[in-house]
Write a structure and sequence with these properties.
The structure holds 2 protein chains of 2 kinds. Chain A contains no helices and 11 strands. Chain A is mainly beta. In chain A, strands 2, 4, 5, 6, 9, 10 and 11 form a 7-stranded mixed sheet that branches. In chain A, strands 1-3-8-7 form a 4-stranded antiparallel sheet, with no helix packed on it. In chain A, strand 4 and strand 5 form a beta hairpin. In chain B, 0% of the residues lie in helices and 51% in strands. Classes of the chains: A mainly beta, B mainly beta. At the A-B interface, strand 4, strand 5 and strand 9 of A face strand 4 and strand 9 of B.
C-alpha cells in the first residue's frame, strides 16, 4: 500500500538557523510531490511542486527552497529561518493515473515554530 | 480562492442538525472542485469532489452543490455529529493543470458541533 512519511512532527528553531524537512513516499513510482504551508488559523498555500527527480516549481517567492534528490523523496529547506516561516508544513503526493479522488494524499505535517 | 491573509470563519451547529459550509472560488476556468476535512494537527482528508459539468453530487451524509454562475460551492452535512468537528476547505483545479495537480485552496471554515 502507498504511504507518505513526513518528519519531524514538530520543530522549534531559532531565527537565522537552517531548516530541513523531509518527506518520503512508499508504494508508488514517479509521483507528483507537493509542499504546502498553513499559517495558524489560515488556509493552505502551495509552496513547491515537483513532477520528477530534480524538477522543482516554485509557486511563491520566499525564504525556502525545495529539492527532489530521489523519485520518492522531497525536501524543504532554508538557509536562514525567519519568524514568518512559522507554520504547519504539509507534504502531499499524487500518483499516476488512474487517480480516484484526484489522487491527493497529504502527510501528517510538521509544525514549525521559529523563535 | 486564495486563502492567504484570510482568517477562518466559524460555523457552530447543534449535534443532529444539518450543516452548510460555503466557499467562493475565484477562477471561472476551474473545472474540478474538492472538499477536504482537516482535523487539528493532521493533514487534510478527501471528502467529496465535483466536476464543473455537474451542479450536485451526493455522498454518504454529504452533498456538494456547485453554482458556476456565481462561482459558489457548498458542502452540506446531514445529521452533523461531534466527529464532524474540523476545518473544511474547498479546493479548485484550474483547467489545464490536471497534469501538475496543483490545488488552489479556499479560506476554510471551522465547524464546531455542540453536543
Amino acid at each position: 500500500s502507498q504511504t507518505i512519511h513526513q518528519w519531524p512532527a514538530t520543530l522549534v528553531q531559532p531565527v537565522g538557523s537552517p531548516l530541513s524537512l523531509e518527506c518520503t513516499v512508499e508504494g508508488t513510482s514517479n509521483p507528483n510531490l507537493y509542499w504546502y504551508r498553513q499559517a495558524a488559523g489560515r488556509g493552505l498555500q502551495l509552496l513547491f511542486y515537483s513532477v520528477g527527480i530534480g524538477q522543482i516549481s516554485s509557486e511563491v517567492p520566499q525564504n525556502l527552497s525545495a529539492s527532489r534528490p530521489q523519485d520518492r523523496q522531497f525536501i524543504l529547506s532554508s538557509k536562514k529561518l525567519l519568524l514568518s516561516d512559522s507554520g504547519f508544513y504539509l507534504c502531499a503526493w499524487r500518483g499516476p493515473p488512474p487517480r480516484p479522488n484526484y489522487g491527493y494524499t497529504f502527510g501528517s505535517g510538521t509544525r514549525l515554530t521559529v523563535v | 480562492g486564495e486563502s492567504v491573509g484570510l482568517h477562518l470563519p466559524t460555523l457552530s451547529v447543534q449535534e443532529g442538525d444539518n450543516s452548510i459550509i460555503n466557499c467562493a472560488y475565484s477562477n471561472s476556468a476551474s473545472d474540478y472542485f474538492i472538499w477536504y476535512k482537516q482535523e487539528s494537527g493532521k493533514g487534510p482528508q478527501f471528502i467529496i469532489d465535483i466536476r464543473s459539468n455537474m451542479d450536485k453530487r451526493q455522498g454518504q451524509r454529504v452533498t456538494v452543490l456547485l453554482n458556476k454562475t456565481v462561482k459558489h460551492l457548498s458542502l452540506q452535512i446531514a445529521a452533523t455529529q461531534p466527529g464532524d468537528s474540523a476545518v473544511y476547505f474547498c479546493a479548485e483545479v484550474l483547467h489545464g493543470s490536471s497534469n501538475t495537480g496543483k490545488l488552489i485552496f479556499g479560506q476554510g471554515t471551522t465547524l464546531q458541533v455542540k453536543p
